[in-house]
Structure formats: C-alpha cells, structure tokens
Amino acid sequence: MAALACVTALTFTVSTSAGTGRLAPGASTAGAGPIALSHTSAHGPCMIRGAREVQMSEGIPTSTGYTRSTGTVRALTLMIDFSDAPGEGDARDRFREFFPQTREWFRTSSYGRLDYRPETPIPSWLRMPKSFREYGIERGAPFEPGYRALVQDLVAAADPKVDFRAYDLLNVLVTPNAGLSALDTVLSVTFAGNPEAPRADGIPVANASFVYSRQDDGSGSYDRTGYRVLPHENGHVFGLPDLYTADGGGAVGHWDIMSEDWGANNDFLGWHKWKLGWLDAAQVHCAASTGTTEYTLTPLPLAGGSKLVFLPLDGRTGYAVELRTRAGNDEAVCRPGVLIYKVDAEVDTGMGPVTVYDSRRDSGGCTRAPNVHAELSDAPFTPGETFRDAGRGITIEVAGVGTGAAGAGAGVEGGYRVRVTRE
Ligand SMILES: [Zn+2]
Asked: Quick check: helix, strand or coil at residue 144?
C-alpha cells in the first residue's frame, strides 16, 4: 500500500500552476507590491533574468503583480460548495485542515518575516449557483471559461459580506467531495499575477489559490502533512514557479515545497527565500569574481548567519549553494550537507527551472519516507567532498565544519565551511 501510494503521488504529485500573465509595469492589484528583496550592488551579477519572457521565472527580482511576501499578508479564505457536492459538516473544519499550520509554516520558513493572517469573514459553506460539473473544472483547466465563471460567482456571493480590498490573496477551499480524489488527479491550482481576473470592489482577484480534495496518501500522515498543498499553492501567488516536471520530482526532489508537497514537511530552497525577501543582503554571497573564497554556511532552516552562496554563470543562470539539515520545516533530511543546484531564469514553471546535483548518483537515496523522492534525498555534499564544473573552472569544496556558536560544538549546527574557486 505504501509503495502504491508513493508511485501514485509521484505521478500525480503536487498541483498545477497557471499564471496567465502579469500586470503591466506600474499597474497595481490587490495586495501587490514590491517584493522586499534585500541586495547591494555586489549582488548585481547574481540577479539573473531570463532573456525572454517566461510565465513564472526564477529570475530576481520577481516581476510585479504577485502578492507581497513580507510583512503582514491577509489571506481571504472562503469555503465553497455546490448543489451536486454539498459541503459536509462544518465549513470551519475544512478551514482547520489548513490553519494554523499554513500560517506557522510561513512564519518558520520566513524566519518571522511573513506574518500570514488567514481570515474567514464567511465561516460557512458558500454555495455556488452552478453545479460543480457545470464549471467544467479538471486538471490543467485554463482560467477561461470555467474559472472565470467560478470567480465571478464566488465574488458575487461573497461581496455583500466581504471587502476584497482588505486582502492580499484569496484562498478557495473547495468542499473535498467535489471532483475526484487527489490520488486520482490533483485539481488544486493557483492563478497568480492575473490582471484579467474578474474584479471585486474595484480590484482584480489577481492572486487566487484553489484547493480540492485531500492529499491523503494512505500512509497515515495526512493529519500532519495534508495541509502542505496550500503553502505550495500560495508559493505561486508570491511568484514562485513549479519545480516538478512532467516526469515528477526528479529535478529537485524533496528540497523545496514547490517540487514536492506531499508527505513529510520540507522547506523552500535558499534561492526562493532570497527571492521572497526573507534573507538579508549579508546572508547572500554573490561569488562572481575569480579566485578562492571561503564561506561558512549555517543551516538554512534556522535563523541567522550566511545562508546562500550564488555563482552566476551568465546573465540568466547560476549555481546555488546552501546547507540543509533536519530542522525547522525540513523534517525529512536524512543526510545533512551542502546542497548544490543550478537555477535557470529562462526556464518556465514546470519545465525544470532548478536542477539539484546529486553527490551520490544512483545510490537509491537515504530515505524511504512516503512521497519523498528517494534518489535525491542524499544529494548534499559532506565535508571532504567537492563539486566540479571543469568546463567553467569552478570547484565547490566542503572544507569542514564551522567553528559554530559558543557551545554548539563541532557539528552541522555550527555550520559548514565551503571553499569556492573560480579560475
Ligand atoms: Zn504548483
């Protein structure tokens, strides 16, 4: 049963995204604002951009039109049902499948920089005027025409009690009996940075996440982990692309919730944390020049210290280096160490914009946790190991453990020293 569930989830894992364009420069929308990226002129070479427009890019800074990812963010959360899928029980129980867990997840991942406040001005099921079948919702369904009709109808139904201008993003928690089980097809979807969305109280509903069914893999962990589809979907409203591809989670594994959002908890990559404004400029080192430099990285899930070294390769790609340990939101790490991955700002969402390098290829990995891509679970480099890109004259050597804070002793908690050489 566990093996079957794992295969199923890898095939249908996580949800689709469907940004449908973004606001023109200077335009504004509900809760949109500059993402508070912290950087200095020294970071310039690391602020990679795609040469051509992609729907959702790993480029820095994130395009405008998405929801701000720092400070207080108010998440309007509506629970909806249909005549052919009437909500069962108290709508607030549906809300409680995701909160306060999602709020806590963002607080932990952001080191307290994102104060995510879910609000339910309508604490009961909001009945849509058409049946679920009539909206034609299916996996990969575009915004037109089904989702446009659904958003128009839910705005009309909620408007008497809701001032949409008071919120930064919309969560639509659909009654779980609408549509197929998530084991059969994942319907959950986000429309992000969508200026063409229907308007409510004068502003477009530009950043909206829809969650269907329950991501219950049968492994018994649903009560603890089932909410994680929502931080994934909300990652899109903050401008992050999908890191899984048509082949599943093999590009990034369990190293980011935009790659795998079933099973054990996982954090964002350091690159995403910088992109979201959760790292200070001093925590991000842009290794653009030639020579050898040593950095001491501290565990990414824990606040404080250096978190990310980035080696730009050209204007659109680079290598990212960070230290991952089992802490914070990272509960499935079975081999702590230095994770190295390539970021490409020109590759679109779902097409593999990030690729993790496996320090132990074809090892089978070190985890058997359900819904965790096993092969990449032992990807991190450990002291004494070196990543080489001979063609570009780059070596990244894990030189040893850091000196650590007083009392931390020698161990991964004290950080790892990483020696970067560019010829
Ligand atoms: Zn997604």
From this structure: helix
Record the pTM: 0.91
Task: Determine contact, residues 241/234, Cβ cutoff 8 Å.
Answer: no
The rounded Å distance from CA 185 to ligand 1 centre is: 14
Residues of the chain with CATH 3.40.390: 14-44+57-237
Q: Residue 35: what pLDDT? A: 61
Q: Report CA dihedral (60, 56, 345, 270) to the nearest 10 degrees.
A: 60
Tell me how far the alpha carbon of residue 189 lies from the centroid of ligand 1, in angstroms.
7
- Cα of 386 vs centre of ligand 1, distance in Å, is 33
User: How far apart are the C-alpha atoms of 263 and 367, rounded to whole Å?
Assistant: 12
Q: What is the pLDDT of residue 410?
A: 56
Residue 15 CA to ligand 1 center (angstroms) comes to 5
Tokens read off for 252: 């990034």
Instruction: Tell me the CA–centroid distance for residue 289 and ligand 1, in Å.
Output: 35
Q: What is the pLDDT of residue 367?
A: 95
Question: What's the CA-to-centroid distance between 120 and ligand 1, angstroms?
Answer: 24
Q: Which residues contact 189 (CB under 8 A, 6 or more apart)?
A: 15, 16, 17, 18, 141, 147, 209, 210, 233
Mean per-residue pLDDT pooled into runs of 10, the chain (423 residues): 30 32 30 65 94 88 93 97 98 98 98 97 98 95 95 98 97 96 91 94 96 90 94 97 95 98 96 97 97 97 96 97 97 96 97 98 95 97 97 97 59 89 97
Q: Tell me the backbone φ, ψ of residue 16, rounded to 5 degrees.
A: -85, 160
Residue 101 φ/ψ, nearest 5 degrees: -55, -45
Kindly report the backbone phi and psi dihedral angles of residue 150, in degrees, each rounded to the nearest multiple of 5, phi listed first: -65, -45
**Radius of gyration (C-alpha) of the chain in whole angstroms:** 21
Give the count of beta carbons closer than 10 Å to the beta carbon of residue 400: 15
Ligand 1 centre to CA of 363 (Å) is 28
Give the separation between CA 170 and CA 45, rounded to whole angstroms: 35
Give distance in angstroms: CA of 242 to centre of ligand 1. Answer: 5
Between the CA of 20 and the centroid of ligand 1 the distance, in Å, is 14
Centre of ligand 1 to C-alpha 406, Å, is: 41
Question: Domain 14-44+57-237 adopts which CATH fold?
Answer: Collagenase (Catalytic Domain) (3.40.390)
The answer to whether the beta carbons of residues 159 and 121 sit under 8 Å apart is no
209: CA distance to ligand 1 center in Å? Answer: 10
Phi and psi, residue 208, nearest 5°: -135, 130
pLDDT of residue 9: 31
Say what the pLDDT of residue 52 is: 73
